[in-house]
Amino acid sequence: MSGQNNEKAARAQQKREPVHGGPGGAIGRPVEKAKNFKRTLKRLIGYLKPQRINLTVVLIFAVIGMTFTIVAPKISGDAMNKLKDGVVAKMAVQQLTDVQKKLREGAQKPEGDPAQDFPLEQYDSKALEAIKEVMNLPLIGEISDADEKADAAEKIINLQKSIPSGEGQKMSMSDEQIQDALRCIRETGGRVDFDAIAQILIMLLGFYVLSSSFTFIMQFVMAGVAHKTVYRMRKDVDDKLPKLPLKYFDSRTHGEILSRMTNDIDTISQTLQQSLTQLITSIVQIAGYIVMMLTISPVLTLIVMATLPLYIFATAFVAKKSQKHFAAQQKELGELSGHVEEMYGGHKVVKVFGHEEKSIEKFSAINDKLYDSGWKAQFISGVMFPLMNFVSNVGYVLISIVGGIWVTKNRLNLGDITAFIQYSRSFTMPIVQTANIANIIQSTVACAERVFEILDEQEEAPDNSDARVLEFPKGEVVIQNLDFRYKEDVPLIENMNLHVRSGETIAIVGPTGAGKTTLVNLLMRFYEIRGGRISIDGIDIVDIKRNALRKIFGMVLQDTWLFNGTIRENIAYGREGASEQEIFQAAKAAHADHFIRTLPDGYDTILNEEGTNISQGQKQLLTIARAILANPAILILDEATSSVDTRTELLIQKAMANLMKGRTSFVIAHRLSTIRDAEVILVMNNGKIIEQGSHKDLLSKGGFYSDLYNSQFTGANLA
Amino acid sequence: MIKLYRFLKPYAAFIASVLLLVFLQTLADLYLPTLMSDIVNNGIMNGDTGYILRVGGIMLAVAAAGTTCAVIASLLSSKTAMGLGTILRNKLFNRVESYSLHEFDRFGTATLVTRTTNDIIQVQMVTIMIMRMMISAPITAIGGVIMAFSQDRMLTWVLVIAVPLLTLVILLLAKRGMPFFKSMQVKIDKINLVLRENLTGMRVIRAFNRDEHEKARFEDANKDLTDNYIKVNRIMAFMMPSMMLIMNITSIAILWFGSMRIDNGDMNLGALIAFMQYAMQILFSMLMLSIMFIMVPRAQAAAERINEVIEIVPGIVDPEDVKKVAQGKGFVEFKNVTFSYQGAEQPALSGISFSASPGEVTAVIGGTGSGKSTLINLIPRFYDVDEGSVLVDGVDVREMSQKELRAKIGFVPQKSILFSGTIRENIGYGKDDADEEEIRYAAGVAQASEFISNMSDGFDTMISQGGTNVSGGQKQRLSIARALVRRPEIYIFDDSFSALDFKTDARLRAALKKEIDNATVIIVAQRVGTVMDADRIIVMDEGRIAGMGTHRELMSTCDVYREIVSSQLSEEELA
């Protein structure tokens, strides 16, 4: 729980977090590419396998739900047609009836009336005949049978042709329209067929309800599919981490690993949740819309298709232009974050050296550059939507014109054109989406690849099949001809030999990088050695089960790692199933009991995330209590007191003295006073033991150790 | 968030233009269905091809005009939103730079970094979204209603029912989903916490064989998060289909009632088609708004965090009339100083009085939490005292300008902080106009010459961010060189030799001794060896001075001091 690490990790994480731009902002962002797209994608799909039943359900429901959505406009177009037919028929009947009425009125008027409309004497016999016939027909509006009505209407229209009357009496219709109107009358009987419309609308309602419920079920199931898959992925990675050798973690920052487990997996979950269903529905939509449009009018469909290259062109154009700015923005953002982190991290130094203004100056400069690339990136990607909209509108207008003309020529129905417009407008959405999703999938696969990389890492060598467990370890350690290096080409420990008898205290001193901590790491088999042999009680540690081996050791480190939990839990960490009493005893032996009891919640005090509610020294005492509780045969104290003041150290030393009784102990320390009393002092330099002996022996020898020791007192003091 | 928008003032003209342009663009979009309706009524019904072509042309022109408006609006809104981000960042950074440690500690580095970067980006992005969608959505909705109303009065009643219904559904779902949305971040944080602990405590966990225990902890967090995710997404799964259903039922209703009205001769076909398109536009804009409702709360939280930083006024500012120090060479005096950290029950320092003159070395020693670092932090006025006063050259530090005060001080902090840049730049940080000679000299005194010359680029070697490519001891020496190059009147070393091995420590102190002979030197230390020969040793215990004097004096008078010494040195060394 060291605060500094937390901070670093948190910040490293932030850096990787993408800048969310919302639906509009995502377009044109540079896409991260996977190294091996195909293989990773396959593997990702493999992860979905346990969910294949649910996935099949999703797929089927998506297709069905979408089909309903796709067919719906066509059906509503039918309703529109019925309505239009009814209206047209009604209008035609109305007009014809008017003509009839006018004729009758004209015939009944007294002769010689100057204002009469029908100067009969002007007509030839044929015309008179026709007029007579029209007048003899019953009023069309009153005929109830649709066919009779249509026949009558047709008759009137035909008769009318032979009446060279004034403009007012003629119906201003083209031949096609007359044909259409007659058909309408025949079908509808001259009125709007509400029964038929109601029927269609009820069917439509059913379709909509079905479509919505199917979509709902699909998304509902998908939520489970996506997050259960990701749950498993997280679990797999977490299971993997303890199996990885420490070597793996040395070469990577915590932030990097954390980011893979959080950001990357999050991206995958989002893609599975949203983009996958979107992709399915989009593809179904595209196919469905094309089919529907083709059934309405192949030629109009061609017009819509003709606008497609415009979309592609627009997208490509915008993507190309904006990528440059997005990259620049990302770069400036990185620089800005870097500067902010440094300045905030070194706030005290900035202040004490009076560099605030300079820091602000630099910040402003980066900020300005960020503004420049930022607005350009946003603008260009923001243009995307209007451009798409414009292309869509162009298509809309073209269809309106061509469709409109065709309707007048009776090559299309009004309902067809409205349905077609709906299709063509909806058509653009899935296309834009698919293009977007293609990008999303690419970066998701890149994320998945990083996650899989962890899963593929070489694990620690498994325990030998005949590995043993030491029941009652005595703590005798023998190191023979030990060779070790972290990096292949940089030798660290070479040909080291050491014999530690049970119960001895071994102090290890030497400059930083001498290999002190490394030696301890090797004892616990955190790393594999290159050559030689380490044995405990005569048994090579390679032949001891890892768990059993580590049980032999108790560790107190400089880095007082405690976790976010109660003090009780933290001490109990030393041994599973420790009783309350044992915990108290361990705390007492570590001289921690007193301070714990002065805390407001005593043993139930929760150590906060930053570990700031108790002091460094107190934390150290807790780690000692933890080690005491573990009751190990061999104790390792690695710089256990270096970050603690001398008075607390006194307490800790007492506690450690308790701890070290009867155990083999390895003590690494900077402070020579801590190690004076060790039975054997090892002086290490450059991976080798250069001196070995008791404090007195080494001092009298006058070598490296005495040099080191005396330098702390020689008159080189400041005063 | 509204509060932050006060910073948009310089962009008022832009915003007004965006509003106008979006309005025009929306009008254009809305006008298209009307034209379409004209085509149906006048063109199709009358079979007037010429008319259709003419109106079609107008439609194209309108569409083009709308697009032009949208593009310009996008330009202006990008500039505005990014401008807001830039202004906010500058404000925030300026404010933080003016913070004293008091305000700074209240937040902590990590969260301040997040606030300056991610939080502002959040606000910036939502601002763009607002300008792109939130403005156009209500205009579309209102415009759509007006246009629909003008097409047919009675049918508007359908919308009067549909719109509130849709709003209700959105609000209900938002209300149900909100708690899960909110707890999401908490659960993500939890999983991150467990993971981070697993990584930082890797060795301890393995040493204690507690892998299974950690696995169980992670499993809990993982399950919790997964359940929450599934719940949220299931609620959201309900949202889209139900909204679509409402929209579709609306269109059915319009079709039905519209048919009746047409049959009665109250309405024509073209109007019905236009009306339906308007209805869809209105409902779609509502959908857009609902997306905003999801996005805005997140940005809201970010905005609050930003505001918090901007609104806190630094506690330490220069006085109106700054007192100049007439003369003096760095004489430091504490007069009965009492100081408490904010919110602390007990003062961290109380009744501290001492003085340190040029040419003297004053050492401060004591346990963790005894107030050593606090004491020296008062000299450069990182904090203001509660009672008493800190004087430098006879002037209260609160009456001096901070710049002038700090120019007198060479400070070497406990944690060596270097900045990214060359070694030369890092040492030169202490003195703006330091020349090569001075820098090399300071490095020499700080015992840094040797390792610098061993580096590939010598003084031009780049220090990476956080100084990760130099060791702790090297960092400490560079940070000492940085203070030395300043040639200040007062040196403050806050436990600055801890990472050095004894040999280097001794050599460094020998070199320093000659160098800073005429300055006032104040050293905080833990090693008795470092302080033994100081002119004055101040022994701190629980915020008070437990003893003051030379090593010899203290050995006979001060219990605390003796205790410290005996913990470090053996009997024979004490003799």
UniProtKB/TrEMBL annotation, chain A:
It is a multi-pass membrane protein. Residues 1-30 are annotated as: Disordered. It is found in: Cell membrane. One of its GO terms (cellular component) is plasma membrane. InterPro entries: AAA+_ATPase, ABC1_TM_dom, ABC1_TM_sf, ABC_transporter-like_ATP-bd, ABC_transporter-like_CS, P-loop_NTPase, Type_1_exporter. GO terms for molecular function: ABC-type oligopeptide transporter activity; ATP binding; ATP hydrolysis activity. Its main location: membrane. PROSITE patterns: ABC_TM1F, ABC_TRANSPORTER_1, ABC_TRANSPORTER_2. Residues 477-711 form the ABC transporter domain. Residues 193-443 form the ABC transmembrane type-1 domain. It comes from the Bacteria. The chain crosses the membrane at residues 53-72, 196-225, 276-296, 302-319, 379-407. Gene3D superfamilies: ABC transporter type 1, transmembrane domain (1.20.1560.10), P-loop containing nucleotide triphosphate hydrolases (3.40.50.300). Keywords: ATP-binding, Cell membrane, Membrane, Nucleotide-binding, Transmembrane, Transmembrane helix, Transport. Residues 8-19 have a biased composition (Basic and acidic residues). SUPFAM superfamilies: ABC transporter transmembrane region, P-loop containing nucleoside triphosphate hydrolases. Pfam families: ABC_membrane (PF00664), ABC_tran (PF00005). This is ATP-binding cassette subfamily B protein. It comes from Anaerobacterium chartisolvens. The lineage of its organism: Bacteria, Bacillati, Bacillota, Clostridia, Eubacteriales.
TrEMBL record, chain B:
Coiled coil: none annotated. InterPro entries: AAA+_ATPase (IPR003593), ABC1_TM_dom (IPR011527), ABC1_TM_sf (IPR036640), ABC_transporter-like_ATP-bd (IPR003439), ABC_transporter-like_CS (IPR017871), P-loop_NTPase (IPR027417), Type_1_exporter (IPR039421). The chain crosses the membrane at residues 52-76, 130-149, 155-174, 235-257, 269-296. It is found in: Cell membrane. It comes from the Bacteria. Pfam families: ABC_membrane (PF00664), ABC_tran (PF00005). Its main location: membrane. This is ATP-binding cassette subfamily B protein. It comes from Anaerobacterium chartisolvens.
